[in-house]
Amino acid sequence: MSRRVVLAPDSFKGTATAADAASALAAGWARTAPGDELVARPMADGGEGTIDALAAADPDAERMPVRVTGPDGRPVDTSWLRLTGADGERLGVVELASASGITLLDPLQPLDAHTIGFGEAIAAALDAGVDRLLLAIGGSSSTDGGLGALTALGARATDASGRPVRPGNRGLGDLHRVDLTGLRPLPPGGAVVLSDVTNPLLGADGAAAVFGPQKGADEAQVPLMDAHLARFAAVLRRGFEAADAPGPAPDPATPGAGAAGGTGYGLLAWGATAVSGAAAVAEAIGLAAAIDRADVVVTGEGKFDGQSEAGKVPSEVRATALASGVPVALVAGVIAAEAGDFAASVSLADLAGSPGEAMARPLAWLEEAGARLAALLPTP
């Protein structure tokens, strides 16, 4: 009897997109079980690849080109995604990684990278008249608290002399005033921040301490960056009071405020709400309905570890599959944590003989993993 198989991997960061991973798994599976029906549902968690995953699920999705200011000041050509909901709602999806992401920098600039381009892309979506925004904030290059994005949306950030502060975390150290009176309003349906990160803005678990080193910060720079973010939070609170805002400034301890170098905090200040990126993408692509009609589900990511349980794609797909009573399998470049509740699991590093070989030819080993799982998983 043939099986209906849903393939819902995340990207294998730096080596394969989610769509390419799903295609490779499908090719391998078809070699072993050519009669099975294969349904690709590439996933994302709010990081790089979110637009690709949403575009793959909607043939009417439209990429809207825009040129923005990159994280080091150079122009970047990118796009945001325009979708139309079932009720006619005009939805804009903006991905930070493509406008202000870490892959756009070489070398890294931990103190000076900024999110201005991300804000410019959001502004372009607003100019196009979207009703609601989805803001995917993974893959950030900066630790500027999202101030760059806020300035691109109309906020003014000045030093004690009234001059605009420099972009990036370094400029937060000179910050004296944030004027929010010119900040553009949210679209009618609001803005939703997609992220898989629950870190606060400040402290040992905050944006600078946890993610600063990934963005090039050394041991001396991390506490300085954290102090600059604390200054930003204090000045922003005064800005809320001066603007007579309808509510208080966001709490730096809010889970997710530290996402994307504090961009989560800046977007909360704009009035956006934060949700699990993987859950939001799953809803947008109709993952639950696809899985409910499936016999087997396969998910995966580059590295399955302790963080994978905290709202990343494999945990979201597994929960959805188990809720429907459908067995789910895991494929990962490296499996560094107990793969509990998965009906089967395959490590590309184990298949290839080493992580290096797996990363050198990821699609070939994903295809082999698909073939292996097709033989391992039961036929109904």
Shape: globular
Strand runs, count:
13
Judging by the overall fold, what is the CATH architecture of the largest domain?
Answer: Alpha-Beta Complex
| Overall radius of gyration | 21 Å
Which stretches are low in confidence, meaning pLDDT under 50 for 5 or more residues running? none
Organism: Agromyces rhizosphaerae
Family: Belongs to the glycerate kinase type-1 family.
InterPro entries: Glyc_kinase_flavodox-like_fold (IPR018193), Glycerate_kinase (IPR004381), Glycerate_kinase_RE-like (IPR018197), Glycerate_kinase_sf (IPR036129)
GO molecular function, one term: glycerate kinase activity
Attribute tags:
single chain, 380 residues, alpha/beta, Rossmann fold, Glycerate kinase, domain 2, 2 domains, six-stranded mixed sheet, five-stranded parallel sheet, 15 helices, 13 strands, Glyc_kinase_flavodox-like_fold, transferase, glycerate kinase activity, Glycerate_kinase
Task: Describe the secondary-structure layout.
Elements: E1 4-7, H1 18-32, E2 37-40, H2 50-57, E3 62-69, E4 75-84, E5 90-95, H3 96-100, H4 116-127, E6 132-136, H5 147-152, E7 156-158, H6 169-172, E8 177-179, E9 191-195, H7 207-211, H8 221-242, H9 259-270, E10 273-276, H10 277-284, H11 287-292, E11 296-304, H12 313-323, E12 328-335, E13 344-347, H13 348-352, H14 355-360, H15 362-376
Parallel strand pairs: 1-2, 1-11, 5-6, 6-9, 9-10, 11-12, 12-13
Antiparallel strand pairs: 3-4, 4-5, 7-8
Helix pairs in contact: 1-15
